[in-house]
Amino acid sequence: MSKFFVKAEHLPSITEFEMDANQLGNMLNPLGLRELHLWDNRYFYCSHEDWGKVLEKVLLNMPKYTTERFDCENFAMLTSARTSELFKFNTCGIAIGQSPWGYHGFNIFVSEADGAKLYYLEPQNSMIYDVTDDSGYKAEFVIFG
């Protein structure tokens, strides 16, 4: 009996960019974070257009919000973990800080848009904000890794 293996391509083709921890740290300095944890030496990310493809897959079929059991910080952690698992990008960080709804967990990510730039992601509704916008989001604690 012979065995056949067929590779099924379920993930979109994405162009990858790379930076080191010092570059990422320098990008994050203007945010005035209380704590920053960069757990890797090299960081991988994609274009803003390709992030749309990534987030379409990552945010699909998220669990239902459940107070104290699966709430804002859990959405942020799962989004970061899925991004790493599916695309091997370690530039979708977990952020804790202020939001339009008070103290909150959300994501911060690096995107190539005429140079590397930082964006906030609200994983519960897929909204994206440039970190320089007056969106009501302001990270205080960030983990990338």
Annotate the secondary structure layout.
Blueprint: E1 16-20, H1 21-28, E2 35-38, E3 42-47, H2 48-58, H3 72-87, E4 92-99, E5 102-112, E6 116-122, E7 127-130, E8 138-144
Parallel strand pairs: 2-8, 3-5
Antiparallel strand pairs: 1-3, 4-5, 4-8, 5-6, 6-7
Describe this structure in words.
The chain has 145 residues and is α+β, with helices and mostly antiparallel strands. The protein contains three helices and eight strands. The chain has helices at residues 21-28, 48-58, 72-87; strands spanning 16-20, 35-38, 42-47, 92-99, 102-112, 116-122, 127-130, 138-144. Strands 1, 2, 3, 4, 5, 6, 7 and 8 form an eight-stranded mixed beta sheet that branches. The protein starts with 15 loop residues before the first strand and ends with a strand. The mean pLDDT is 93.
Keywords summarizing the entry:
globular; 145 residues; eight-stranded mixed sheet; alpha+beta
- Summing up helix and strand content along with how strands pair, one would put the structural category as alpha+beta
Distance between the termini: 44 Å
* Overall geometric form: globular
Helix content: 10-25%
Radius of gyration: 16 Å
Topology as a string of helices (H) and strands (E)? EHEEHHEEEEE
Largest sheet: 8 strands, mixed
Number of beta strands: 8
Give the low-pLDDT segments: none
Instruction: Tell me, rounded to a whole number, the average pLDDT.
Output: 93
How many helical elements? 3
β-strand amount? 35-45%
